[in-house]
Amino acid sequence: MHWKSLAGLALVAPSHALIRFGCSQLVVQRIDPLVNPGLVPSPHVHQIIGGNSLNATMDHANHDPPTLSTCTTCQPSDDFSNYWTAVLFFRARNGTYHRVPQKANAGFEGQNGGMTVYYMQDQLADYQQQTKVTAFQPGFRMYVGDVEAKTKAQAQQYRQLTYTCLQDMSTRFPETKDFPTAPCPAGIMANIRFPTCWDGKNLDSPNHMDHMSYPESGTFESQGPCPASHPVAMPQLMYETIWDTSAFNNKEDWPEDGSQPFVWSFGDTTGYGTHGDYIFGWKDGALQAIMDDPCYVSCSSMKTQSIEDMNKCSLAPVVNEDLDSWLTTIPGQSMPM
Question: Where is each DUF1996 domain found (predicted)?
Fold first, then answer.
C-alpha cells in the first residue's frame, strides 16, 4: 500500500488532522447533476470521481449515494460522494484541441487519473487541542467558483482556487490565480478549496454557494473565525487535479503569439473561471468518525480499499461524443452557458 509513505510530503499547509486520499476516474462526460440537473448533455465536459450511482439528475430528495452505489473510485471504501471539475484542453497552433489527461499524485501511483481529495480540520498549535468540525450531512452539496470570471479581481472572490506549475511531483508553491504561462515539466496542478463555514440549516441553496462561507477573516488554515451568518465549522474540502501537460510542452506547438495554450472545457483561457462541485455521499457517520480522530493522512478510523479496486469502478458515459481525438471544437461550446 502507498498510503503510509505520505507523511513526509510537503502538503498544502502545516497541519496535524487531515485525511488525504486518491480517487480514480469514474467518468469524463457532459453531465452536471448539481448545476444542470437532468440536462443531457450539459453545456461543458466534466471529469468526475466517486460513487457509481452518479447520474444526470441525482435529486437530493430520493438519491442517497451510499445506498444506490455499488462501488466507489475513492480510497475510503465508505465514501460514495461525487466530486468533479471541468476538463482541461490544449489549444494547438493550428487551432485544434486535445483533451489533457490526468495523472496520479505522489503516493497514488497506479491510480487511473482522477484527483486527490483532502478533508482538513481547523488547527490549533497544540495537536491535542484541535478545533473539532462538523462533517457534511446526508443530502449536502456545494459548488465553488465562477465560470464567468474573466479577471483576477473577479477570481479573488474565490480566494483559494489556484494553480501550481509543477517542476516535480513534490512542488506545491507558488500558487497562481491564472494559468501558468511557461511549460510545467511535471504538469499543472489545479487546486480547489471549498468554503468551510455552514449556515447550519440548509443542505443546499439555489446557487449551491450561499449556504456556505469562507471564514470571516483570514483563511481556514490560519484559523479564521466563521461569520455569525455561517457559524458551523466544517472540514475544508480540497481537490488537487494534476493535468499531465508533458505531451504539450513544446512551445513550437503553442499559439504563434506566445500566449499560454490551455483552455477549460467551458472556453476559459485565463484560468480565472475554475470551479468545483461536490455531492456528499459518505456512508452512515463514517466521515464524522474520521473528523473526530486526530489523525494525519492515514487514519485507523478510515476503511480503505486498494488502488486496483478503485480502478475497477467506472461508469459508461451517457453522452456519445469523441473526447480523445484532435478536435476542431471543444464539445459543447456551441451550447449556451
Answer: 32-282
